[in-house]
Amino acid sequence: MSSKSNSAEELHPIFTKDPQEWMGLVHKLVQITTDDSHQHEGFVFTVDPVSESIVLLRSTQPDSKDFGTMSLKLIPGASVRDIFVLAKDVDPRVKSQFDQLFRPASSKVFNEEELGERRSQLKHWLEKHRLPVSVSPDGRSLIVAEALTILPPFSEDTCLSTNEIILSRIRTLIRDMPCEVGSAL
C-alpha cells in the first residue's frame, strides 16, 4: 500500500482552484489561447471544474449577441494556456438567451389563461382530424380516444400512452398544428 503525500502540487486542481473563479467566467465574453497558439473567442456557456474544459458559444452573425444561429466550441482544459476576459460585465440579454438554450420549447411557463387557450386549440385541432377528444374530469389534461393523455402545456413532449402507434401519430399531429387553430377551422 502506497502512502499519499498531501502536498498541493499533487492535488487535482479541483481541490485547489476556487469554484467561484470558474463560475465567474459563465456568461462572459472571453478569449482563450490554446497550446497550439490558436485564439478562441466567445461567451462561456459552462465550465467543467474537473477537466477544466470550457464550452464557448458565439453567434454566427458577426458582432451579434443573438444566439438564434450559433456555433458551439468545446475547449479541452488540458489545451488551455490563457483565458482573457474581454467584457467584465455580464450582458443580461446573453444570460437570458443562455437560460433558454437547449431547453425544450415546452419548458416555457404558461399562466392558466394561456394553458386554457392551448388546451382549447389542441382539442379543436384533434377534433378537426376526427379524433374523439375529451377534457379530463379535473380539467387539466386532454384524453384522446381513451388511449392517450396530453398534459399541460399540451405539446408533443407531454403526451402519455402505452400504445406507441397512437403516441407517434398524435405527436405528429401536434407538431403539424398551425399556431392559430381557431382561424384555420
From TrEMBL:
Superkingdom of source: Eukaryota
GO cellular component terms listed in the entry, alphabetical order: nucleus; SMN complex
Gene Ontology BP terms: spliceosomal complex assembly; spliceosomal snRNP assembly
Domain spans labelled AD: 92-182
Listed InterPro entries: AD, Gemin6, Gemin6_C, Gemin6_Sm-like_dom
Protein's recorded name: Gem-associated protein 6-like
Organism: Elysia marginata
